[in-house]
Amino acid sequence: MIRYIVFGITYAFAAAVQPGPFLTYIISQTLHRGWKPTLPAVLAPLLSDIPIVLLVLLLLSRIDEEFFRFLHSGGGIFLVYLSYRAYKAWRDFDSECVINIRSGQQTLLNAAVVNILNPNPYIAWSLIMGPLFLEGWRAAPVNGIVLLVAFYGTMILCLTGIILLFSFARKLGPRVNRISLGLSALALACFGIYQFWLGIHP
User: What is the reported pTM?
Assistant: First the structure.
């Protein structure tokens, strides 16, 4: 059981801090909206991974390259759309703007879409987490359960820490905030174009 706990914690930490579309979106929203509306997004991996986990565990041996190409293309288009929204926020930046806390629900939804269109969770579950979960579950169901709890618990804690860290950076001043927001829009666009290229490139 200890092996599954340690692996879940270690792998979740590595996944949470790894640069990618989801992390970039989280940072972008924190810089634009602040930590309170962005905080619900830490639940996005838990929410979006439910269909991913079920799909991968059922079709573990049937996922082919064409499926991942479709995900790359769809994810790339959505990231470019989010980049455009971040660009508009940069263009129309207002340091006195009051953020609506209820917008956190939309942030959670968008973050979940980013994650579900990101091929990385599918790859991780088909090549790493899925086989390990099935191995542990077959030996004793508690092994699979502690793996999930350790992984998603650590993921949520790490994402919360990242949001709070960049929220502090947001308070350094409007100029720094606007520059950071512009950079995050550029990063989202780059990830989107790259993912779309992966989807259409044979």
Answer: 0.68
